[in-house]
Give the backbone structure.
Amino acid sequence: ILNVEQSPQSLHVQEGDSTNFTCSFPSSNFYALHWYRWETAKSPEALFVMTLNGDEKKKGRISATLNTKEGYSYLYIKGSQPEDSATYLCASINQAGTALIFGKGTTLSVSS
Amino acid sequence: GAGVSQTPSNKVTEKGKYVELRCDPISGHTALYWYRQSLGQGPEFLIYFQGTGAADDSGLPNDRFFAVRPEGSVSTLKIQRTERGDSAVYLCASSLTPGGGYNEQFFGPGTRLTVL
């Protein structure tokens, strides 16, 4: 069974704070890791698809790193804004390669 | 362009009833996925279509659940004899190319199903 774990479960920060979350996954038979942002009443939005060990990707104030040997990925948000408030989901690929296996997500709340 | 759409956005039904949930993927996307998110959990895979055929239905929890995609575009998830435990947000996603979980998936806003 492929388990994807995320921590913390929830997080509350002040506007301007930088923060990071962790996603851990089994390192064996790794293929790709996905990060999504899911705002309330909206569709989950893809942030990154990461495949290579040591990969680092950036989109605006959000960046992510990947360590496939030890089985973890970090998502960083620099200078959090209230509009960053959302649930951040990571997902690996099932063994059949057909679908995503999601963690439970980290819910971020940013106060102004 | 238009994203993935799902109807209805909310569905309330009674235990034992039959429901259908619809997904319109992005035009031209050959791969389509159904997931459901129960309270406090991450989205859980249900079924994956490549074209008209179900390439992987291993996530369907039991034979009360069935999904079709007869023309390779719109898909319908059908749940018979609904139970309270079926209450969840049902998400649909599509991707441009085959490859299952390797490619970016574009999600719809989901259908929130409540079984009373």
User: Anything to note?
Assistant: DSSP finds no helices and eleven strands in chain B. Chain B touches chain A at residues 3-4, 33, 35, 40-45, 48, 55-56, 58-59, 91, 99-110 (CB under 8 Å). Chain B has a mean pLDDT of 93. The first strand of chain B starts at residue 5 and ends at 7.
